[in-house]
Amino acid sequence: MIKPGSTIGVLGGGQLGRMMALAGRNMGYRFVTLDPTPDSPCGQVADRQIIASFSDLSAAEEFAKSCDVVTYEFENVDAEVAAQLEKTSFVPQGSELLKITQNRIREKSTLHAYGIPVAPFEVIGSEQELSDAVSKLGLPCVMKTATGGYDGKGQWVIRSMEEVPGAFRDLNRTGAELIVEAFIPFEKEISVIAARSTNGETKAFPVAENIHIENILHQSIVPARVTAEQAARAEEIALKIAEALGVVGLVAVEMFLTKDGQIVVNELAPRPHNSGHYTMEACMTSQFEQHIRAVCGLPLGDVTMLSPVVMVNILGEHVEPILESMEKLPVTSKLHLYGKAESKMKRKMGHLNVLASTTEEALEQIEALGIWNKAEVTI
Ligand code: AMP
User: Fold this and answer.
1) Rounded CA gap, 183 and 177, in Å?
2) From CA 87, how far away is CA 332, in angstroms rounded?
3) Which residues make up the CATH 3.30.470.20 domain(s) of the chain?
4) 264 Cα nearest atom in ligand 1
5) How far, in Å, is the centroid of ligand 1 from the Cα of 277?
6) Which DSSP letter does residue 274 get?
7) Is any atom of ligand 1 closer than 6 Å to the C-beta of 216?
8) CATH superfamily of 186-377
9) What is the pLDDT along the chain (379 residues), one digit of tens a residue?
10) What CATH topology corresponds to 120-182?
11) Which of 55, 140, 163, 342 has the most neighbouring CB atoms within 10 Å?
């Protein structure tokens, strides 16, 4: 067990690391972060930031030596760096889950092998293979880069055969391996964050219902508007993944819920997740505290919900309106800003957790603020 008072190293200085450090500091842990940008969101609240590139092996070694345990807040950790960290420090999450989640082909194949439902998919290497795969999977279908994509980047929804050459040319330019998968006509997007500790104890947070705008998470509504049976199944799937993959820390499982009630897993993240920010005030234990408990081998915290909640993301374009609305924010809402120096359009700058007696009420309160244009919402 890594006891409070020890030093936790966080690879990556973004908002997830920041909220991890804020939660861990309450428990008495110390924090060191490694990130190339000075004064990073996590660096601002950590004891120390090592400013270096993520591929700098000697910086990674210095970082690992100064920590009792190392964790990461993003999944694109260089394999060589991960191996170096494992040599010099205790990295309970290991590098196996990282390797799986860094590549959609590995991720989907692994899930399929464990009997977890995923969208039918094909790996493609040429325009002809794409054309054959589209004929096999049917239209529409979704072509994605196997690595490096996020928030819908590196994706193309193919709606007709005529789009095949252009879609292939566009994503082939990235140099990444490509996959194409069947389009799942989902009714809702949901997610579950499961934790598994170094002792093998597991717990899953309540299911979140996620609304995206232009592929970026806009709101998480919890409890999700799904049946009790669907919620139980989603939690079961997340726990099964945590067990099967031997997760240590958190695994966020994004899923599609279809009209006929089927659940299909879309994507995994081996870390705290934007769709789990609601836990900060709405659950007995936040996802960030849970992550720290899991990697330090402490007993996992209770995941009971204390209140219905809607989490709404604050992007660059929402910062000014939020700051101008400070007096209007609901008294049962909690504002989190990440301390990022530069506010850019679509950049995640913070979030607001609105607690209310029902999620409908929380949604109404958010709408009344007039900051997020409802017309933009596409599910
Ligand atoms: P991803 O990067 O895989 O999380 O995909 C980004 C978004 O694209 C998802 O949140 C979905 O809204 C949509 N999407 C991705 N894959 C599919 C699919 N196979 N069927 C339908 N929609 C998809």
Assistant:
1) 19
2) 46
3) 186-377
4) 19
5) 20
6) G
7) no
8) ATP-grasp fold, B domain (3.30.470.20)
9) 999 999 999 999 999 999 999 999 999 999 999 999 999 999 999 999 999 999 999 999 999 999 999 999 988 888 788 888 888 899 999 988 899 999 999 999 999 999 999 999 999 999 999 999 999 999 999 999 999 877 677 899 999 999 999 999 999 988 889 999 999 999 999 999 999 999 999 999 999 999 999 989 999 999 999 999 999 999 999 999 999 999 999 999 999 999 999 999 999 999 999 999 999 999 999 999 999 999 999 999 999 999 999 999 999 999 999 999 999 999 999 999 999 999 999 999 999 999 999 999 999 999 999 999 754 544 3
10) Dna Ligase; domain 1 (3.30.1490)
11) 163
Give the CA count within 13 Å in the CB-facing half-sphere of 258: 12
Best of 75, 134, 142 for a ligand 1 pocket test (most atoms within 8 Å of beta carbon): 142
Contact 98, 247 (CB under 8 A): no
Residue reference for tokens 């290991």? 94
3-class SS of residue 97: helix
Ligand 1 neighbourhood includes 119 CB (under 6 angstroms): yes
Residue 133, burial from CB neighbour count under 10 angstroms (0-12, 13-18, 19+): buried
**What amino acid occupies position 266?**
N
CA atoms within 13 A on the CB side of 367: 10
In short, whether 189's Cβ falls inside 6 Å of ligand 1 is yes
Any ligand 1 atom below 6 A from CB of 184: yes
